[in-house]
Specification:
This is DUF5666 domain-containing protein. 10% of the residues lie in helices and 53% in strands. It contains two helices and nine strands, in the order αββββββββαβ.
């Protein structure tokens, strides 16, 4: 899969985990949010043998980055090259309308795509996706609050502030599960400096 296609696929999958499940009678989407931050920085130095790169930070400070031995094209990166770093975060939540007797839990997936060996411009994408099952232990519809139990057995009460989610509080029942999927995607592309 090509880079950028991975970003689109993972972001779409996160959103669809909240929206496509609404087609199933037992699942109700609660919310979905995608945010992205991007910065372009300059390479100060490269130590390909030790997989280290020094980048120029936003205020001109130097940021040392230690990479793994999977960074195969570092020899092509040089001082003065520009590096684009983009972080995409997505959060999607949906309600399982069945009363689930199971305990809350979590799962994690990771993956990466790198520039082909020998590529002129080093770069790649990596993602981390965590899905957490929270158990509803209390509902205060009058004050727009829901209490959840996390996988560690800890309780937390959340104020529901978005009107579109407040409207869905009537669909909640103690004992139901809310699944929240967190996805972070890091995209790094480089281009030769002049």
């Amino acid at each position: 899969m090509k880079r950028h296609a991975l970003t689109k696929a993972i972001t779409l999958a996160t959103l669809l985990s909240a929206t496509s499940l609404s087609a199933m009678a037992a699942d109700i989407p609660l919310s979905a949010v995608v945010e992205a931050d991007q910065v372009t920085t300059k390479v100060v130095s490269v130590d390909a043998a030790n997989h280290q790169v020094v980048l120029e930070g936003p205020e001109g400070n130097q940021v040392h980055v230690q990479l793994t031995d999977k960074a195969k094209n570092l020899g092509k990166l040089k001082a003065g090259d520009l590096v684009d770093i983009k972080v995409t975060r997505a959060v999607a939540a949906y309600l399982d309308t069945d009363i689930d007797k199971g305990l809350p839990g979590s799962t994690e997936r990771t993956g990466e795509v790198r520039a082909a060996p020998g590529s002129d411009n080093p770069g790649g994408e990596a993602y981390r996706q965590v899905q957490v099952q929270l158990k509803i232990t209390g509902i205060d519809a009058k004050n727009n609050r829901v209490t959840f139990e996390n996988p560690k057995g800890q309780s937390k009460t959340v104020d529901v502030v978005k009107p579109e989610v407040q409207a869905k509080l009537k669909d909640l029942k103690v004992g139901q599960s809310v699944y929240v999927t967190y996805t972070d995607i890091l995209t790094v592309t480089s281009k030769s400096g002049s």
